[in-house]
Amino acid sequence: MTATRGSGQTRQRVARAAIILLIGGYLLLPMFAMLDFSTRGPGGSRTLDSFIAIGSNRDLLEGIFNSLATAGLTVMGMLLLLVPTMTWTIVRVPRMRRVVEFLCLLPLAIPAIVLVVGIAPVYRGVTFLFGGSALTLVFIDIILVLPFAYRALDGALRSIDVATLADAGRSLGASWPRVIRQIIVPNIRPGILSASVLAVALVLGEFTISSLLNFDTLQVTINLIGKRDAFISVAVCLAALTFAFVLIYAIAAFGSADQRRRQVAKEDE
Amino acid sequence: MDAVAPAAPDRSDTGASSGGTGARGSRHLGDYAGVVPFFVYIGLFLLLPTLIVVVGAFQANDGSPTLSNVESVLTEQAFLAAFGRSIWLSVVTALLGAVLGGLLAWAVASGDPNGRLRPIIVAASGVLAQFGGVMLAFAFLATFGFNGLVTLLLRDSLGVDPQESAGWLYGMNGLAVVYTYFQIPLMLIVFLPAFDALRREWRDASESLGGSSWTYWRHIAGPILAPSFLGALLLLFANALSAYATAAALISQGSPIVPLQISTALTSEVVLGQANVGKALALAMILVVAVVMTLYALIQRRASRWAK
Amino acid sequence: MQTKRSRVVLVAVAAFAVIVAGCGALGGGGSDAAATATTAEGMGGMTALEEAAKAEGKLNVIALPRDWANYGEILDAFSAKYGITIDEQQPDANSQQEIDAANSTKGTDRAPDVFDLGANVALANTTLFAPYQVGAWADIPDNLKEASGLWYSDYAGFMSIGCDAAKVALPATVADLLKPEYKGMIALNGDPTKAAAGFHGVVMAALANGGSADDITAGIDFFKQLNDAGNLLPVDPTPATIASGQTPCVIDWEYNNAAQANDTNAAAGIDWQIAIPTDAPPVASYYIQAINKDAPNPAAARLWEEFLYSADGQNGWLRGFARPILQEKLVADGTIDTEALGKLAEASAAPVVLTQDQLTAGQDLLTGNWTITIE
Fold this sequence. Notes:
Chain A is mostly helical and 269 residues long.
């Protein structure tokens, strides 16, 4: 019995390693290719010129700023919209929870390419009220983020007893904003982090709506620059992907470290 | 004390209220006030645009009602062919992505949950799954394009002419390869949590009863994972069907798939006045994706029963 | 603790609103006099127009790539001469996207002031234009302008074939393109169902293969042959693809191809040459100028048009290998840039310009057939 399990485990370990190497390798191949492509210099040399050129390309910097600013605004807006609403549905109107869930998952069923077709008249109103900057994309980016953010926040909210916490806070005289801010939010921090990270990744990678509404976000600019200079655009792609990876990994690591710290603290009680 | 006093009806979610346990089961209209901002937002930025698309699909350019847009979508060869290609592409890449991503998920799940490899792969998958098609298109151009790494390697080592070896990337085959590339990480993210529901004890029990690895997979793990796998497959299908950015960045001649047909209808400077036909195409897309997502939601609900 | 938190939240919400709102100011048209003037005299003369434009200080243009018909030089010259800052929006937009941008930014100070459109898009959107007749109005042919000044042609180009002579011989005719030495080399600028340049490439192929301006089926068949032979590349030709050698042959407007015969490419060893094929009459298309009715800088818009139709503007286009509308007048006045004129290829026959009906017929034909053709 032990012998079978031992060889079974080795077989499993070999299979695991093979799969991770092959599939992981396939996923990494384009990354290496991008590194190779963006560091090509004249005559076969290696150079970081393409990366350095990013800093002096006004269009690129504008695209980067627009996307980062929109991402930040989207995170704020998404949290402002979802956390109070989801808390409220759990505590006060549980029957609305299904409806809210359905509405939050609806954007998955309405592809961005379809949404942009119908959003033009709405955006005329938005432009009238808020001007024509690319940051007005935040309104529709929040919609795009909803399915992923909802799932992350819902998972976190289910892991704590929201109703009891809220009731406790209310019975001690706290107002609703205070309950949400000081009781709910600290307890769902992992979910908030996860939702925020997903939102940032999505906004930085968003192309369809920005392009068809003619806003200069990061992806639109990369596409445009690619027509003039392929090297710089590949360099930006690589930089953006690396940035996003580091961000996601760091926040995930911070989140789990935070979780571990709080678990230890709980055990110490 | 609060449970005895009747809950005062709320007019807003920020107003002071006696709150407390009594309010939880309340059906006062005021309770719904808390979700009003959410509904207004969704109504304005999601439901209204969808309505505009649906209504526009049945309007002629001067606003009068007509079935001609829907008719041309359902009968014109170019559109039907585009739907065919879109569905073929989505099915193929969903299957490939599901199988390869599923294998990768298994490999990651059967490793050390607290090890360093898992968060790295999950983070990388998060990035690759979310990141725009434009970036991946450029990544593949850098790999398999005319001046790509692999193309040049083939040229230098095997003498293969780049003009011959690189053209496939810019057509449907290239699209399929790039789509599969971002389906795999998406599959990982969606399917990995399902593995966490498999308990170690079940495997041990199966083996202690004399079952082989195959028995375990066929009778225990398989049926448990099946709903999640199917659900993920549907999600991948919907994802590929609606993808636009990759195709826009790679394909420049012809509009072989439906999202490209929609954008041509909207932005072409040669064929004018087709905006409502674009809306009819969009309506068709909504219907197909809606069916798929409903199936997905149903399967998810079943799968979540096993996760407890 | 509580006050600090609530303050942070308030600041965040306020910042949210301010950032989004403040990043795009609401704006409207400039002086009313400029917005309704239909000639320079209506403004009180050229000097008054210049003063009003300088007071506005800004001009919004859209869809003007710097290497398209030498727009880069023209934009810089205008900016330097009058001290007006030009906001160059969306250089790669097509004509329909120009109109969409005008509609979506209507009433803001980001709206485009002027348009440079393809003929069919211009004709379909005249309600967006403000009538204005430039000083040289009388010299623009009647059939190439709208009587009250809503739109007027600016320049034209012939459909051409550009090739890297260092890689492959320059073809003299459309039929040459089918030769095996062009395998995997030929790119068409734009999808014919989406972009005017691509469309007119198909028209050129039609005229060379027994088709006519009324029926471009022969052109579609030619491209099918080209694709089946493996000569047609499914790649969008851009300065980047030409510089990297990916698209050694490009079918595009003469002025676009000519712009690629520049120093950067020469230094990289690319000998870019242009030919107007001899087995078909030259296919030409006039682009069209118009002023936005809701232009945020109406005086600057009108001054820009005056500049374009002066010798400076027209010669600017000429140096970009486009054929300016006032070419004959400049030759007669002696103000033409003779060196640039000498570099333009001779037209072998009378150029063919498609009428609106022919354009529509061609578009209808393409919509159903193009995707199948290049599969």
